[in-house]
Amino acid sequence: MSERLLVLVRHGQSDWNLKNLFTGWKDPGLTDLGVSEAKAAGQRLKALGLTFDTAFTSALTRAQNTLGLILDELGQGTLHVERNQALNERDYGDLSGLNKDDARKKWGEEQVHLWRRSYDVPPPGGESLKDTVARVLPYYNQHILPAVLRGERVIVAAHGNSLRALVMVLDGLTPETIPSMELATGVPLVYRLKADSTVESKQVLEAAKADA
């Protein structure tokens, strides 16, 4: 049996990350920094000698482009990729496209903080983190986890909140602890799983100073 390898990576910086806008299901591209972050992530995975059998990403181009850049660095640009909106970022509804500071001025610091950091309070017309978990986990359990448990080496490039849903399960976090957990852009999380799908080891491939 091959190692049960699962790598999660949040997309590189997007244009709307740079502009401090709520993004959600909107589809801005990567910034030059985001491209560099994705390439550096690929280089760090390559330095570990990692390659992949299967790749998953969302329906949004910032995640797809990040994955493509990583696979190019690994010499795996032709690897088959499964794309599904189940892995999309949390839908921020009416907040999508708004500057976060402007949203605070409109609705107040406390309300915007509640929408951003609570587990089960959705913004107007959007999803809570709980809603996102309910969307992501069935896809993970039906498509991603079985591949890992078969011994395939799997990489998932997605978004801060869709990946937090997976980290919540893998790391055993709770609705109380998950809202404060942040995922940096372009930083791979390397998990090795036991046969019962629990985590054997976790490694965070943070950027070296030379990558910055």
TrEMBL record:
Pathway involvement of the protein, from the record: Carbohydrate degradation; glycolysis; pyruvate from D-glyceraldehyde 3-phosphate: step 3/5
GO MF annotation terms: phosphoglycerate mutase activity
Record-listed E.C. numbers: 5.4.2.11
Cross-referenced InterPro entries: His_Pase_superF_clade-1, His_PPase_superfam, PG/BPGM_mutase_AS, Phosphogly_mut1
GO biological process, one term: glycolytic process
Function: Catalyzes the interconversion of 2-phosphoglycerate and 3-phosphoglycerate.
Protein name as catalogued: 2,3-bisphosphoglycerate-dependent phosphoglycerate mutase
Organism: Rhodoblastus acidophilus (Rhodopseudomonas acidophila)
Gene designation per UniProt: gpmA
